[in-house]
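Board notes (copied after class):
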Amino acid sequence: MKGKVRKVPYVPQLIQTECGFCCVAMLLKYYKDNRSLSQLREYVDVGRDGLSLKQLINLLNRLGFEAKAYKSNIDGLKTIKMPAIIHWEGRHFVVLERIDSNSAVIVDPAIGRRKIGLDELEEKFTTYSLVASPTDKFVPEKSKGSIWFHYLYLMLNDKKLLSQILLYSILTYLITLCFPIMIQSVIDGISTQDFSYVFSLKKNFIITSAFITYGLLLFTSGKKQVEFKILIYNTLCKDIFKHLLKLPYKFFENRSIGDIIFRIESLGIIRNLYSEKLISFFIDCGSILIILAYMFSKSIVLAVAAIVLSVGAAIIMYGANKKILENNHYEIIESSKLQTLQIEMLSSIQIIKSSGIEDDIYNKWGNQFDSTIAKTKMKRKISKHICYTYNFNKDNSSFRYYVYWGRSICQRRYYTRNLDFFLYYGYYVFLNCCWYFCINK
């Protein structure tokens, strides 16, 4: 059945036996249903051998779909409704996104989206396909909200410490905003031959005091943030390990030791996200509002220009965000496989040595290592391209603003005393903060 097919959202397979399960999740997301894998596990029990084609049909029927299985060759695939789940290499399930006269696009839960030739499709497709269409009984479930708020309790364990960090950070930022105003006064004084600001002992004392206060606040804030990181890591690790010991044996039976260890080691990343990024997010949100208000008080035209450029930047970054997340999934999956292989190798070293299969094991490890490096390289390349775009747009926009400002001064539409240096600084920081939010999303 021909027709334009949207891209199927990718759902990574973190457990070896959940390929069919992830394919069902991808179909649900294609039809705007945001149920997570943990929610879907309430409908069916995924055993050690995964789900059969019949179990996938029953699961989709329970979710409000009309699911049917077909047996055909690749010519038959061109007549069915896309996307469809197809049986792959006799032991795996993938989602067929589209097929044409020369190629096909599949979404493999184990390795991601791939464009393949019809020769490979004919070789690996094992005749069975599953087509599912939503019925009137299908009710898409909306997202439960951001995962950030699910773990917000980590930040609220010590409200006093959190309040101190926020206070020190806000004071630090306010003092930082004062520096451009001081620079503006010096520039205005030089332009009008008024050097009282430069030689005034009182004003120099104020500037020196501001710098000393700024340094003390940075030191104190850094010290408190270290305490906060340790607190979050302590709470998170204890809660996770306690929960891990209470899980049923089936959880460990369906997962490799390497995969579980890899997830535990990822707790450090979560700690840094909550102790640094989330706090910075709230502080920068407030700073954007303050800067924006100041900019509007000085020049509505330039303030609106800053908003338009920032919104444009945000749209570009939002479009790139899906690609970033998808490549993050690829890297995590391959890294988990590599760690699993290394742990299994070390735990079986006696058998490897006695059997003399060191070269075979090394070749197997080398293939997985190369695959992991390839995914890491792809992720880094995309991240670099986005950073280059970010820096180019930020600097280009700031330069164009500076040229406009200089031309306006020459035409006597503004004066440096009315359109001060802080406006340039505010514009630069405002644009920087908006890009920062998009990148860290």
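Comment from the instructor: The chain has two domains: 19-134, 147-339+389-440. Residues 358-410 form the longest helix (53 residues).
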